[in-house]
Amino acid sequence: MFLKRIRESLFKKYILVCNALLIISICSCDLPTQYDVIVYGGTSGGVIAAVSASRLGNSVLLISPGYHLGGLTSNGLGATDIGNKAAIGGMAREFYARIFKYYNNGDSGTQWRFEPHVAETVFLETIREAEVPVVYGERLKLDNGVVKSGAVIEEIEMESGIRYKAKVFIDATYEGDLMAVAGISYTCGREGNDKYKETLNGVQTSNAVHHQFIEKIDPYIVPGDSSSGLLHGIQEEGPGPEGSSDHRIQAYCFRLCTTDSAENRRPWPKPEEYDESKYQLLIRNFEAGDHRIPWSKILMPNRKTDCNNNFAVSTDYIGMNYSYPDGNYTQREEIFKMHESYQKGLMWTLANHPRVPEHIREHFSTWGLASDEFADNDNWPRELYIREARRMIGEYVMTQHNCQGRQVATDAAGLAAYTMDSHHVQRYVDSLGFVRNEGDVQVGGFDPYPVSYRSIVPKQEECTNLFVPFCLSASHIAFGSIRMEPVFMVLSETASIAASMAIERKTDVQAINYNELRGKLIEAGQILEWKR
Fold it and tell me: What is the pTM of this model?
């Protein structure tokens, strides 16, 4: 057993070194500045789109604002959310087959749970095999960083001043920065139910039954004294009329990779700026009698986890991200650090604070950060889970009606299959004077459904050579179903195949022949319709 652990440790170090060498070699290249396809965003879908474009014979460049590839798939979200895995085909399925092969000595199959470093290793191997050049650490200039000639993007400019030209661009970021800077119509927040005749959009108090307070919690710093002010994280105003629109977006968190292995576990770090007042609502909820263990711990290989929000007060930093989508890089970094400080302090509090129930302290003391993950970032995930940011307004807007089958897109770019899922967006004081969470919606029970090709391209008058497979055209509640990593990969491959067609035929991305595209997608292994 001891020798086995040594071999595993050496192998992981070998993988890290290989990954580092690959990054250095790609970054050191004297790259050209003009390509057939440029993919902006080193996410899971960004990698898929770039590799797909290369396999199709295009010159392609992948630009990653960060220094690692894979987005949330390689940053702790190892418990793949999809709803129905049979709905996933093409290169997305190839990724999960590669994961299976990694863990099972080359056997064939698919595996949907994995460690973060394994996901990144697979993405890097795929990039290397396709010989895709990657530029790391380059961010789009947010002030006039996109140069257009009419509705055509001619070039983009990075913060460094480097300019890149391409025939077609793919925005594979969670934020939709390329889309926004290119002047494409988009929205943030929640539409009112009246906008698209939905029932699950806008303010949702009656549907917010999950991850909710089960005890009556006084919201004020001094219990019963409203003049003392509200506890941290509670909004001063009410939630708003039921079903009405607002600017709020669902909460973010880090998907932690933890372990209970004493040999690989490190204690929860206490942030230097630890502020006990941020956790008074958590503690007061315990003292009121809610003794549920407040996280969702999903087991991964090698005694590790993917951890998510659970119950009334947990890893979601509710209400602290509203300005993120349209924020500049400095503002986003401040929000990122605020979330990091909150969640580190939360985990430390759960394991150490004397007012936390003993059985909960004991539970969290047996778990800690996996010391062999995110080695260059103090074992903390490098990316925040941006569950929702901007959403494009295209010719076709995916809505609740698509999810539930009342409307069916006839130009499928892929299938989505997950429950309509929104995390909470705010905390407020209800009419009885107690704390409530608002915004969580979890409504499923429907078959996989097609996502319209028109929802991943802008309106033709706005831009004719851009794809947006991440911040696609969808209402808030429909996006909550579509926004799963495998679906982003599927839509990104579709974007890449369509981009190749547009380049070959010298036509707008909106004007390609869908029937021809459909044939190519099926050849690529994509699943475009659901048959019971």
Answer: 0.95
